C-alpha cells in the first residue's frame, strides 16, 4: 500500500518538474532571441522582462545582477516615475551619488588594498605586486591583471559558478576602462612605471576585486576601490645588481624598508549613467538597474579625458544622446573624483593613525 | 625552529595559553538576512545567511526539516601568496561540509520544514584558524538572521609545538607541521560538535590540547554573547523601546 | 594586556611575498632585577645585591662569548633582540649563550624587549636592523626599569661604535657552488681517448676520507686525490674520470689532510692494526716534513672531472645529534653520519627525528648536486638502538657487506640426507683409502665445532715417521655449479665475531658431516709424508681417505699431555714426535727467512647468558698451536707445489708481496729513534735484526715485531696465470709457493684448491670454470675482498666488545707510546690489544706549548720540562665517555 502511494507521489512531482523544465526552456530561447550579448544589467525590454518574471524566478537569476527583488507593477511605475521627476525612491536626485565611504589598508598582506562602500554596495580591491618577466612585444611595460570575484555573500545566486558570468563581465569592463588598448596606449595606469630592468624584469600588478555586498553600480564602486587601492599601494624598492649579462636574469635585492608609492593621479574614475525611460541616473541601485533600458560607463581622468567607454543594455541609443550622456558623465566625474580623493586621503590618514 | 622561547613567549609575543585578539561585528552585508564579520588576529572572514526561504531546487527539499547549505570561498588576496584557485576545490568543499554539519547541529531545523537556509562564508584574510573563524562568524550571522538555534556553536583550535600546548595557532605555527586540533562546541550544552586533528599526538597530551581548545571555545562564546547582547541593545534602541 | 601591532616584513623566494605577522606587546614581562619595585620580583634572576647590571649588544656577544662564559661575568641582562641577531649570525655562539641563560648558577636573565609594551621600538625609516638593535639595546632595558631618570644618563654613541669590526653575516645570501660541474659523458669519452683524463676506480683512504687513490691503467700508477673538492662528489668505489693537476700542485697534501676540520676528524680508540692495510696510510707522506731538500717525486695528484659509474649503496650509521624539531610530525633535515668514514655525511629528510636519533639506521644516496656540500639520500630502515650489542653487531656485518641471512631452501636442498653416515659406496671407491685404522687426532681451540684438520704421526720401522694431515673432504659434498657452491663462493669465508660465527657452509656440513670429530667415521683429503727424524720430507702422497679420529684435543690439553712426562700412551707419543718434527721444520723455516711477526690478539670471556664480555686478555700462544700450524703450512706448501705442477695457468695460490721501502719507513724511523738499526734488505735480514732487537724489558721485542707487522700488506689470493713465478713469493713465510688447503669448511679458497688437487690426482675432472682465467681472477678478487671484510668485521666486533667491557669498568693500566703527534701521542695497551690517542692539549688547540721532535720521535713541552718519546711506557686511565649523546667512545687519559 505504502509503496504504491509513494509511486503515485513521485510521478506527480515528476510531471511538475517536466512542466517547469519546458517553461524554462521557453524562457531561455526567449532571452537568447532578444539580446544575446548583454545579459548584464538586465537589458531586457520592460514588458518582456515582466513576462519573464511572471513565468518564474528561476529564469531571471541568470539574467540579472545582484539581488532581484520581485517588483510589482506599481513599484516599477513608482521607480520610473520618481526618476522622471528627479526624485528617486531613496530621495536622491538623478545625478546624486549615495554616500561613499573608503577604507584603505584593509588587507595587510596585499601591497595595497581598499574597501569602498556606496550605500549598501560593498566592494574590496587589493593590489599584489610580483616580479615577473615582461612580454616580448611590450618589453618596456609591466603587466596589470584585473580580476573580479563576486562573493556568494553578496547574493545567493553567486553560489558555485553562478557569479562567474558577472565576474568576467566586470573584469573585462574594468580592464577596458583602466588599461586602455592592448598595446597599452591610453591606459589609466602607467604601466611603464612598473619596469625594473627593461626586457628582463618588471612588476606585475595583480588587482583583485571582491564584491562583498551588491546593490547596484558595481562597476563604479570597483573602479573607485581600485583607484583607492592603488594609491594605497607601496611597491618595494628593487636594487638590481649590475653587470648581468644580456641573457641572464639579473640578481635583485628587494628592500624591506623602502617603498615606491604608485602614482595614481592619472587613474580615471568610472561613471555609469543608467538610462531609465527618457532620463539617465548615476549610481543606480539594483532595483533601478532592473528598470534600465541601456547604460553607458565612461572612465574619465583628472584632465577630463575619456579613458574608456562601454555601452551596455539592449535598447539602441541615439548618437546625440550618447554624446550628451558623455558630457554629463564628464561633469559628474569631476565631483566624484574630488569626493573620492578626499575620502582616500582621509582613509589613509586614518590608517596611519591607527 | 623555536616556536616558544625559553621565556615562554610565542613568535608573536603571546603566551601559550593566549588567544589572538578577536573582533566581531554583526551586519556587514546589508542585503543578507543575517551577516557578520569575525576576526581572529589577522584571520578575517565574512559570513552571510540567506533564509529561511523557499527551496531553490525542489528536489533537495526536505519535508520535515530545513535544508541547510553552506559555501566557503577564499578571496584571491586572502593568502600571502596570491593564487587563483578554481571554485569548489577539495579543500573548500571539505570546509563547506564541515561548517554545514556543525551549524546544522545547532539550528532547530525541524521548525522550518520545506525551507532553505544558505550560509556563505568568505575568507578575506587567512592567517591560520580559518575553519574556526568561519564557524564563529556563521554562528553570529545565523543569530543575526534570527534563525532558531539550540545553542551557539563556537570553535577554536589548539596545537602542540616545542612540547607545549598552544592555543589558537596562527599561520606560522600551523605550518610548523605539528598537530592542529580544531574543536567546535555547543557552549551551554557542553557538547562537542566538531573535532578534527591532523598529525599525531600521544593520547594524554591530546586530552590536554583538546581541553585547551575547549577553553578557547568557551572564551569565544562569552565574547560572542557580549557582541550579540550589544547588538540587540542597539536594535532595541533604534526601535525606541 | 594584549596590544596588537602588525608589522610588515618581506621575504624573498624568487617571488616577493609580503608577510604580515602580528606582534603582541605585553605589560607582564618583568625586568628580572630584584631591586625593581614595579615588577614581580619573584621571577627575578639577578642578585639583589647587584650594584650594576650588564647589558651587551650583539657584537659583544658574538666576539666575546668566551669572556661571557667566565663566571666573573654575572648579573647580565640579555635582550631577546640581541639573542635573535646572534642566532642569525652564529648559531654556535647562540647555543652557548642559551646554555648560559638556562644555567641556574649564572645570573643571566633574558629580557624579551621586543614584546614589552614600553620597550618595543618601531623600525625607523632608513634604519638598518643593526642600527636599530643598537638603539634598542641601549634604550630598551632601562626604559623597562621604570626609572626614567636613568634614561638621561645614557649616552647614545650609536654612530661612534663603528670601531667594532663588522661581523660577517653568516646567513647565506644565495647558494654557493661548492663543487665543479661534472663534465658531460661525451667530453669524458673524448678526454679518455686523448689521454687528458684517466679512468679508474676511486678508493678512499679508510683513515683519512680526504685522501683518495685512483688506480689508473693509462698512467700505470696511483693518482692521489686530496680533499673533497677535488674528489668532486665521487664515492668510494665509483669509476671516475680524473684529470691530472699541474705538477707544482702535487705537494699540497699535508695542509689539506690536517687542516680540513669541517668534519672534526678525530681518531678513536681501536684495535691494533695487523697489517699495513689496516693502518692509516697518511703517515707515508710525512717524510717530506723532515726537511728533505728535494722531496722524492711524489705521486701524481689529480681531480675528478666526471663519474662514469656510480657505486652508490646503502650505508649504515646514525644521525648527527641535533635539537628536536618543534613538532613531532614536522619534517626535519638531518645529517646522517656513516660508520664508514669514507662516506661523507648524507642529508636526509625525516618526520621521525625523535625516533631515529638514538638508532642505527640505513640510508641510501639519491643525488648530489654541485650546490650542496653533502649528498642527499633517504632513510631505508632502522637496525636498532645505538650501543646495543645486537644492533652494533649487525652494523658490523652490514658495514662489511657480510651476508648473515639463513641459507636458502635451494642451498639446503643440496645437503646430503641427515643423519649422514659412511656408506659402502664411499668405502668401495677405489680412489678413497681406508685409513680408519690409523690413530688420527685433532688439535683445535677449545669448543671448536668446525674441525677441518686432523693429524697422525706413526713411527715407521725404518726409523722414519709417517705424518699425515687430514682435511675435511668438503668437495665430496659441495659440487661445482650447485646453489650450495654458488652461495659458498659468494660468502667466501666464515666470519668469526666475538659472540657468533657466520658460516660459509650450512650448519650440518660445518659442525657435523665435514667436521672431523672424534670417534666418528669421516671423509677426508689427506696429505701424507714420509719424514726422516730430521724432518726431511722423503715422499709425499695425496689421497682421499676415510678416517676415524680418536681424540679431539684442545691446544691446552695437547700441551698438557706433552708436558706431562708420566704419560706414555701412544697418542701422547705421537704428539711428542710431531712436536719434535715441527720444531725442526720451524727452525728451518726461520733459517730461510720467515718472519716471526707478532700480532696482539685478544680473547674475551663471554657471559653465556647475557653475551656480555666478562674478561679480556691477550691470546696465549703455546707450542701446540705452533705445532699444528707448522704441519698445516707444510701441507699447504706441498699442495701448492702439486697443483701448480699440473695446472701452471689456473692454480689458485696465495702470495705475500715484499714490503716496499716507504712502507717500512715508519718502522725504521721509530727504530732509529730508540737507537736500533734494522736491516730490511731481505726478509731474512729483517728477521735477524728483529731477533737482535732486544730492549731492557721483555715486551720490547714483541712491540717491535708488532710495529713491523703493521708495515706489511696482507697476503692475497691470485690466479697463477696472472703473474710470473717470482711474484708468487710469500714474503712472511719465506716460501716461494703457498696456497690454502687446510680449512675448506670455513674458506672457499680451500674448496677450490681441493678441486684442483683432486683433478691433479685424476680423481675427478677439472670443473670448466678453471678454463676461464678472467673468471678465476674475479673469484680470487672476491675471496680477497671477503677475506678482508671478514677480518674487518672480526676486529670491529672485538672493538665493540672492548667498548662494552670498559663501559662498566674504568681501568688504569700501562701503555706504550707507538706514535707521536703534535698534540699528543698514540698509545698501545698490550693487555687489551688496543690502541688509541692520548691528548696532551685540549682538543681543537693546535700544538699549544708542545712541539714534536721528528728525529728523536719525541713530543716535548716548550720549556723542556716534560717530554714523551716513542715506545716509552706510560700509565693511562681508560674510561668510556659519551661526549655526544648516544656516541660512546673509549677515552684514554694520562695519569
From TrEMBL, chain A:
The keyword Signal does not apply. InterPro entries: ExoRNase_PH_dom1 (IPR001247), ExoRNase_PH_dom2 (IPR015847), ExoRNase_PH_dom2_sf (IPR036345), Exosome_comp_Rrp42_subfam (IPR050590), PNPase/RNase_PH_dom_sf (IPR027408), Ribosomal_Su5_D2-typ_SF (IPR020568). Its main location: cytoplasm. SUPFAM superfamilies: Ribonuclease PH domain 2-like, Ribosomal protein S5 domain 2-like. The keyword Cytoplasm applies. GO terms for biological process: exonucleolytic trimming to generate mature 3'-end of 5.8S rRNA from tricistronic rRNA transcript (SSU-rRNA, 5.8S rRNA, LSU-rRNA); nuclear mRNA surveillance; nuclear polyadenylation-dependent rRNA catabolic process; rRNA catabolic process; TRAMP-dependent tRNA surveillance pathway; U1 snRNA 3'-end processing; U4 snRNA 3'-end processing; U5 snRNA 3'-end processing. Keywords: Cytoplasm, Exosome. Belongs to the RNase PH family. This is Ribosomal RNA-processing protein 42. It comes from Protea cynaroides.
From TrEMBL, chain B:
It is found in: Cytoplasm; Nucleus, Nucleolus. Its main location: cytoplasm. GO terms for cellular component: cytoplasmic exosome (RNase complex); nuclear exosome (RNase complex); nucleolus. Keywords: Cytoplasm, Exosome. Residues 18-148, 151-216 form the Exoribonuclease phosphorolytic domain. Gene3D superfamilies: GHMP Kinase, N-terminal domain. Pfam families: RNase_PH, RNase_PH_C. GO terms for molecular function: RNA binding. GO terms for biological process: nuclear mRNA surveillance; poly(A)-dependent snoRNA 3'-end processing; rRNA catabolic process; U4 snRNA 3'-end processing. Belongs to the RNase PH family. This is Exosome complex component RRP41 homolog. It comes from Protea cynaroides.
From TrEMBL, chain C:
It holds the Pfam family Rrp44_CSD1. Residues 432-763 form the RNB domain. The keyword rRNA-binding does not apply. Residues 258-300 are annotated as: Disordered. GO terms for cellular component: cytoplasmic exosome (RNase complex); nuclear exosome (RNase complex). The keyword DNA repair does not apply. Residues 283-292 have a biased composition (Polar residues). GO terms for molecular function: 3'-5'-RNA exonuclease activity; endonuclease activity; enzyme binding; RNA binding. GO terms for biological process: nuclear mRNA surveillance of mRNA 3'-end processing; rRNA catabolic process; rRNA processing. Residues 52-187 form the PIN domain. It comes from Protea cynaroides. Its cofactor is Mg(2+). SUPFAM superfamilies: Nucleic acid-binding proteins. Keywords: Cytoplasm, Exonuclease, Exosome, Hydrolase, Magnesium, Nuclease, Nucleus, RNA-binding, rRNA processing. SMART domains: PINc, RNB. This is Exosome complex exonuclease RRP44. InterPro entries: Dis3_CSD2 (IPR041505), NA-bd_OB-fold (IPR012340), PIN_dom (IPR002716), RNase_II/R (IPR001900), RNase_II/R_CS (IPR022966), RNR_Ribonuclease (IPR050180), Rrp44_CSD1 (IPR033771), RRP44_S1 (IPR033770). It is found in: Cytoplasm; Nucleus. Belongs to the RNR ribonuclease family.
